[in-house]
Write a structure and sequence with these properties.
two-stranded antiparallel sheet, 229 residues, mainly alpha, 59% helix, 9 helices
Length: 229
C-alpha cells in the first residue's frame, strides 16, 4: 500500500478533538498568556482602570488575533521565511486599522479613552507570538482555536483586573455607582457610613499588584505551575 493510500485511509481528526479543545482551554488557566507566559502586561497596566475600556480592548484583541491567525495560517506556505515578520506586521497593522476605525465610528467615547493603546495592539507580543509559534506551522482551524483560547485567556484577566480596580478605586462597575453616591454633601449608601474609595487602585502600579495577586492565587491552587529552583 502506497503512502498516499495510507494517508487517504487514515482517520481524520475530529474538529473538536481533545487536542483541539486544549488549544482553547489551556490558555484560559494553565498556560495563560498574562499570568503564566507573562506577556501583554503593558495593556494590563494601561487600560484596566475601567471595565468598559478593558472590555473593548479585549474585543479588539480577540478580533485581531483570530483573523490574524487565520490569515497567517492560510498564507503560511506562501510567505518567504526571510520576510515573515514583516508580513505578519502588515497583517496585524491592517486589522488594527479596521478595529480603530470601527471603534471611532461606533463607540467614539471608548476610542478616545483607549487612545494610542489600540494602535499598540500591533506590538502586542501575544499576537505576534501566536503568529510565529502557531499559525505559521498549523492549519487554519487549529490556528483559529489557538487564537480564540489565547485571546479569551488574555481578555478575562484584563477584565478581572479592571473590575477589581474600578470597584475598589472608583466604587463603580462600567461607570455605574455600586456603593451609592459619593458627591460631597450628597453621600448615600456605603459612603454615608464613611466608606472611602481607595484612590491608589486607579494608579498604574496597582494593576501590576493585582496581576501579581492573581498569579499567586493561580499558582497556589495549581502547584504544577510553580517553577522549581
Amino acid at each position: 500500500m502506497s503512502t498516499t493510500e495510507e494517508k487517504l485511509k487514515a482517520p481524520k481528526e475530529p474538529l473538536f478533538s481533545k487536542k483541539n479543545k486544549r488549544l482553547i482551554t489551556d490558555p484560559l488557566s494553565d498556560n495563560n498568556p498574562i499570568t503564566i507566559q507573562v506577556l501583554g502586561i503593558c495593556s494590563a497596566l494601561a487600560i484596566t482602570v475601567q471595565v468598559e475600556q478593558a472590555f473593548w480592548m479585549s474585543i479588539s484583541v480577540i478580533f485581531v488575533m483570530v483573523f490574524g491567525n487565520l490569515i497567517v495560517s492560510l498564507l503560511r506556505n506562501l510567505i518567504p521565511s526571510r520576510v515573515r515578520i514583516i508580513v505578519q506586521l502588515v497583517i496585524v497593522a491592517s486589522l488594527v486599522i479596521i478595529v480603530n476605525e470601527s471603534l471611532q465610528a461606533f463607540v467614539p467615547d471608548v476610542s478616545e479613552k483607549l487612545s494610542v493603546f489600540v494602535g499598540l495592539i500591533i506590538t502586542n507580543c501575544i499576537i505576534m507570538g501566536r503568529f510565529e509559534a502557531f499559525a505559521m506551522s498549523n492549519k487554519p482551524f487549529p490556528s483559529i482555536l489557538d487564537a480564540v483560547g489565547n485571546a479569551i485567556g488574555y481578555a478575562w484577566i484584563l477584565v478581572l483586573v479592571a473590575l477589581v480596580r474600578e470597584v475598589l478605586g472608583s466604587g463603580k462597575i462600567w461607570g455605574a455607582n455600586i456603593f451609592g453616591n459619593n458627591l460631597p454633601g450628597e453621600e448615600s449608601g456605603l459612603y454615608a457610613l464613611g466608606y472611602v474609595n481607595n484612590n491608589l487602585m486607579i494608579l498604574p502600579p496597582m494593576a501590576l499588584i493585582v496581576v501579581g495577586v492573581i498569579i499567586w492565587v493561580q499558582r497556589s491552587m495549581n502547584k504544577e505551575l510553580v517553577e522549581e529552583n
